[in-house]
């Protein structure tokens, strides 16, 4: 009995130590600090200047989403141009992947929140086990709401938006891939008049023009003739 109580005591201490993990240390891995972004941006520019126009990026398949196409290779800029890898970067246990947008014209350092792809990875594992994804609702001819309960989940998985803090749904396209649905955030941005957008234009830029986090792992969106946000897959 005494031995059992000792084991329970140590287990409780272990759990409490996790809960009492310093907020400032935990926050360092999750907050997109502007100072860190500026430091990495400066390092990228220095590397580009010293290398004759090259960028410190990892090689990726050219067919991947533009938001994750150019991940930064920190080994090329640390410590020559940057003292250390940011604490919120994936490479140091953070939840952001540092990437470069507009690589050809104006290389700009941005972030990808890795909570989204982690949710998608989990769903892909379930899809692999089941062999298919049951559909609950057809949103368009090419976009669907999966039946998550039929996939064995008690509730539909969501991803917290970096723009509004709302919980965003995960949807399925006709190609069988899962995506994060930013319709609500885009609707708010369009209605707020944050940018002039035209039908046929991918309007996702209005989310990240003034925000460091990209709407990665999402389908392209546009507006219809009435200014309503729609998927660009809609005919």
From TrEMBL:
Species whose genome carries this gene: Bhargavaea cecembensis
Domain of life: Bacteria
Lineage, highest ranks first: Bacteria, Bacillati, Bacillota, Bacilli, Bacillales
Name of this chain's protein: Uncharacterized protein
UniProt keywords, alphabetically: Signal
Signal peptide as annotated in the record: 1-22
């Amino acid at each position: 009995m005494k031995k059992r109580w000792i084991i329970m005591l140590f287990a409780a201490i272990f759990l409490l130590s996790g809960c009492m993990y310093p907020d400032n240390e935990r926050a360092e891995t999750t907050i997109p600090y502007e100072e860190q972004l500026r430091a990495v941006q400066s390092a990228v520019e220095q590397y580009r200047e010293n290398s004759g126009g090259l960028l410190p990026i990892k090689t990726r398949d050219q067919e991947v989403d533009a938001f994750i196409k150019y991940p930064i290779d920190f080994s090329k800029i640390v410590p020559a141009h940057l003292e250390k890898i940011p604490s919120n970067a994936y490479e140091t246990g953070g939840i952001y992947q540092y990437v470069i947008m507009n690589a050809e014209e104006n290389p700009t350092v941005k972030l990808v929140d890795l909570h989204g792809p982690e949710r998608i990875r989990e769903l892909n594992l379930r899809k692999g086990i089941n062999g298919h994804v049951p559909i609950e609702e057809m949103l368009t001819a090419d976009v669907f709401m999966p039946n998550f309960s039929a996939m064995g989940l008690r509730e539909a998985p969501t991803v917290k938006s970096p723009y509004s803090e709302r919980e965003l749904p995960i949807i399925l396209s006709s190609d069988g891939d899962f995506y994060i649905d930013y319709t609500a955030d885009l609707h708010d941005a369009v209605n707020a008049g944050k940018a002039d957008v035209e039908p046929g234009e991918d309007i996702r830029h209005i989310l990240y023009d003034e925000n460091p986090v990209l709407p990665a792992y999402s389908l392209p969106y546009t507006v219809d003739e009435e200014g309503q946000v729609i998927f660009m897959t809609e005919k």
